[in-house]
Write a structure and sequence with these properties.
The structure is a single chain. By secondary structure, the protein is an alpha+beta fold. It folds into three domains: 142 residues, D-Maltodextrin-Binding Protein, domain 2, CATH 3.40.190; 121 residues, Dipeptide-binding Protein, domain 1, CATH 3.90.76; 197 residues, Dipeptide-binding Protein, Domain 3 (Dipeptide-binding Protein, domain 3), CATH 3.10.105. Helix content is 28%, strand content 20%. It contains 14 helices and 18 strands. The strands form four sheets. Strands 1, 7, 8, 9, 10, 11, 12, 13, 14, 15 and 16 form an eleven-stranded mixed beta sheet that branches. α8 packs across α10. The radius of gyration is 24 Å and the shape is globular.
């Protein structure tokens, strides 16, 4: 029986590029069953316009019921950030001035209630997402004009200015298409959508149930294997971890408690995964006065990356690069101006720079947000050994612990805002690189420019990356993790690909 199931999986993988559940309507020995997936209680809503950002959140289940015009390729690493058609017939190209996109729908699309999908539905979805939720507001803030032609099945989108990253917004959960009749207010009831699953039961604030539509078939859009997916409000991470270990809960994406992670890594490594997230932790260093350059370099050198990774519970990897590994242009530089990320801080060199700056005994203010307090305390102790006098503050500080992320997996949307915040320490060539990256549409050129801008920002000593954040996925023993567990760089755990043993 096991051999037969593995043979079925191999056939599916060959047909679908390695991902079972392609929505072709054919049966499989891997199909069937029900699982329970935990999401934060605040993310149990069923309105895609109010969906949270993708990774590690409650957005991914909604995508199964509300397909967007575009989607991300089912692949790992950088390949997983590539856009592919979903409800759209193709990925739209920008106009000559880069400000307009024409989106054409595939013919014959229908909502779960049987009603045809029209271009006006897509227009309404974008307007609604922009009006109702903070994520949609960011994604579609640059849209100046929308015109739908239901007869031709096209939507013309005109932006306020050129933005090569805009098509990524059309693959977001918030772009999951709903009917034009959907109210311009948050809905606690399921809205009709297009996808391999339908939302059939809702318990406000507690979760909902997705039921598979076996008739669903759309080329390039992955179907599902499970009959039902119950989305439930997550309890404490300790309770969730215990429930997954005991097979009472099947999927959790919240990080398990720090004291449980060593056990999971060693004894349940088939079921527990830590993967790079689309987030980088960095220091923003702003100092002035005499000796500012030497002091800035000393403050950058003082960050002990391996020790910070330990303090942060191992859910980060030391880095000297701003771009997360999945984004085009990412990669560790040949040499890091602040030392090898895997080595401890060079405190001898840092102390010498403090002395050269005439800063011994100088007060240095340090600020950190939630989740970064442990790293900030470690850093403050290090500054003390350098002869400085660190002081923790709220708000503006000379050293601030921050996290870089973007609403879409695009290198320009990740890096350019950082470059715009530190123009005084970047040379003219680096600022030109940022402008070119924002405007260029050629993928190879964008990757090259992103890598160059990443290195320029790091060398400036104002934006100093120290850790690449990791996301977690922990599944129960009921899940066939060896064959059906996919962790995508953008959407996180691929629920459509999951199957039971």
């Amino acid at each position: 029986m096991r051999a037969a199931r593995l043979l079925s999986l191999a056939v599916l993988a060959l047909a679908l590029g390695g991902c079972p559940g392609g929505g072709d309507g054919e049966g499989s020995a891997l199909e069937g069953g029900t699982i329970r997936v935990a999401v934060p209680a605040a993310q149990t809503g069923v309105d895609p316009a109010l969906a949270p950002p993708y990774t590690g959140s409650g957005a991914q289940p909604l995508v199964l019921a509300h397909t967007a015009p575009l989607a991300y390729r089912h692949a790992g690493g950088k390949d997983g950030t590539a856009l592919v058609p979903a409800l759209a017939a193709r990925v739209p190209e920008p106009s000559g001035d880069g400000r307009a996109y024409t989106l054409r729908l595939r013919p014959g699309l229908r909502f779960a209630n049987g009603r045809p999908v029209r271009a006006s539905d897509v227009r309404h979805t974008i307007l609604r997402a922009r009006a109702l939720g903070p994520v949609g507001a960011r994604l579609f803030a640059g849209v100046r004009r929308l015109r739908a032609d239901d007869e031709r099945g096209t939507v013309r989108i005109v932006l306020r200015r050129s933005d090569p990253s805009f098509p990524h917004a059309l693959a977001a959960a918030q772009a999951g298409v709903v009917p034009a009749a959907a109210p311009m207010q948050a809905s606690e009831r399921p809205l009709s959508g297009v996808g391999p699953y339908r939302i059939v039961r809702v318990r406000p604030g507690r979760g909902y149930v997705l039921r598979r539509d076996r008739a669903f078939s759309l080329q390039g859009v992955q179907g599902g294997l499970l009959d039902e997916i119950a989305v439930v409000a997550g309890e404490s991470v300790t309770a969730q971890t215990d429930a997954v270990v005991a097979d009472r809960l099947d999927v959790m994406t919240a990080p398990p408690p720090p004291d449980r992670r060593p056990e999971l890594r060693s004894e349940l490594r088939e079921r527990y995964h830590e993967e790079p997230a689309l987030e980088t932790r960095y220091l923003q260093i702003r100092v002035g006065g005499d000796g500012a350059a030497e002091l800035r370099d000393a403050l950058a050198l003082a960050m002990d990356r391996p020790e910070a990774a330990r303090v942060l519970g191992g859910l980060v990897r030391p880095t000297c690069s701003l771009l997360p590994p999945a984004l085009p242009g990412a990669g560790e530089p040949d040499s890091c101006p602040w030392g090898d990320p895997e080595d401890h801080a060079d405190l001898v060199r840092a102390r010498k720079l403090v002395e050269d700056a005439g800063a011994l005994g100088r007060r240095v203010t340090v600020a950190a947000g939630p989740g970064d307090g442990g790293a900030a305390r470690l850093y403050a102790r290090t500054l003390t050994t350098l002869g400085l006098s660190p002081r923790r503050v709220d708000g503006r500080a000379e050293v601030t612990f921050l996290r870089a992320r973007a609403p879409v997996p695009d290198s320009a949307r990740f890096l350019v805002p950082l470059a715009e915040r530190v123009p005084l320490v970047l040379d003219a060539e680096a600022l030109l690189t940022a402008d070119e990256l924002r405007a260029t549409t050629d993928e190879a050129e964008r990757a090259r420019l992103a890598r160059a801008l990443d290195e320029d920002l790091v060398e400036g000593g104002v934006v100093v990356p120290y850790a690449q954040s990791l996301g977690t996925v922990f599944v129960s023993g009921r899940i066939d993790a060896a064959n059906c567990l996919n962790v995508h760089p953008v959407i996180g755990v691929d629920l459509a690909n999951l199957c039971l043993r």
